[in-house]
Design a protein that fits this description.
8 helices, 2 domains, 182 residues, mainly alpha
Length: 182
């Protein structure tokens, strides 16, 4: 799990956030019981170093979730730091750089985001967190074997395209390759 998380963090920051949220829910589902985690989830890892790496990663997550009082809901502080970076990047892409390509993806996603906010009766959150929450909800429904309508699939496709474009820009920014003129 640790290697998957690290790979997602390097390759697609949006997928990384979704993966961490999934791991948070996994830990909640296991009542933060490390023995159950090892016996039920990590049992297939034969390599002792890899197992230790995973145990350490999950233990750190458990400690952070408990100290932040996230046993029932909410997300790790690290994920909110990343969301803040993404919000600042989005603002830069839209209002400073005037990135036409990103504007196109954001404009397509904006009505879907607003509709999700209304249906979910959420406290207003930023576009990115709302989009991630919507995608996470649909992924959870799929895992539960629930039927997803064609309209919902199309909406999720719009959101994932928006998030993927933002993630590409994020990684370009981190590599110092964000174009400063469009």
């Amino acid at each position: 799990m640790f290697k998957i998380a690290e790979e997602k963090r390097r390759q697609n920051i949006a997928e990384y956030l979704l993966f961490v949220w999934q791991m948070e829910d996994l830990l909640r589902g296991l009542d933060f019981d490390m023995k159950r985690l090892v016996d039920e989830i990590l049992a297939s890892i034969d390599d002792e170093d890899e197992l230790g790496e995973n145990i350490g990663w999950f233990q750190k997550m458990i400690n952070s979730m408990k100290s932040s009082r996230l046993q029932v809901s909410g997300h790790l502080p690290e994920t909110y730091e990343i969301l803040n970076e993404l919000q600042l990047l989005q603002h830069t892409l839209l209002n400073v750089l005037g990135d036409a390509n990103f504007k196109k993806y954001h404009a397509a996603a904006k009505p879907v985001i607003e509709e999700f906010r209304l249906k979910a009766e959420q406290i207003p959150r930023g576009d990115i967190e709302t989009a991630l929450t919507a995608v996470y909800g649909i992924l959870t429904l799929k895992l539960a074997g629930k039927e997803i309508s064609a309209e919902t699939k199309e909406a999720v496709s719009t959101l994932t395209a928006y998030l993927a474009q933002l993630a590409r820009s994020y990684h370009a920014m981190k590599r110092g390759q964000l174009p400063l003129n469009n």
